[in-house]
Amino acid sequence: MAGQAAVSPTETEIAAEPELRRRDVINIAAVAFAGVGIIPIAGVAINQMNPSADVLAAATTEVDISKIAEGQAIKTIWQKQPLFVRHLTSKEVAEANAVPVATLRDPQTLAERTKPGKEKWLITLGVCTHLGCVPLGAGEGEIKGEFGGYFCPCHGSAYDTAARIRKGPAPKNLHVPDYVFRTETLVEVGAKA
Question: How far is CA 176 from CA 3, 73, 190, 192, in A?
């Protein structure tokens, strides 16, 4: 290689080089143009995935708690599921607070399941965490189970006054949905604080 003369580019190679560059610029411009065109289409497609106004309206429900007497519970519906709203007595609050949390299958205090300053109001989904049956205990005269809360007749899960699982096959406590006290007597379930 030391004795070889330097080879200069031919005229054909020199003429082809600018053509490659023009092609590259055209390709880049075409890809950029296509990318910019996709943005509005993607925006429309993503916006169509947002829930409609009627779905958003069903996402929350308001519950008037003014007529729920102490010691009483009501059943209502939220997102096509039963919802239990319970006005705990002082005795029920004391019983729930007396349970050693470490002994619970799904350890939670009553304070963790209620709002600060509103521990007498327990709001849970009325769906057993075992197989989705509706527990008894919210209706007048219904069996509340040996722990005074709720009893699932399907497989015998028993919940205490804080709707925590105490006995039976259910793995978790009754679920507490997001909710906000809008006034002293009006609760909006499904709303975040």
Answer: 87, 15, 10, 12
Helices (H), 99-139: 110-113
Residue 50 has pLDDT above 80, yes or no: no
The yes-or-no answer on residue 155 being catalytic is yes
Q: Which residues make beta-bridge pairs with 62?
A: 188
Q: Where are the beta strands (DSSP E) in the chain?
A: 61-64, 73-78, 81-87, 121-125, 148-151, 158-160, 165-167, 179-181, 186-189
Instruction: Tell whether pTM > 0.85.
Output: no
Tokens for 186, please give them: 């009006």
Those residues whose C-beta lies under 8 Å from the C-beta of residue 135, and which sit 6 or more positions away, are 126, 128, 150, 151, 152, 153, 157, 159, 174
Q: What are the pLDDT digits (tens) for 51-70?
A: 666 555 568 899 999 999 99
Catalytic position from the list 87, 130, 155, 175: 155
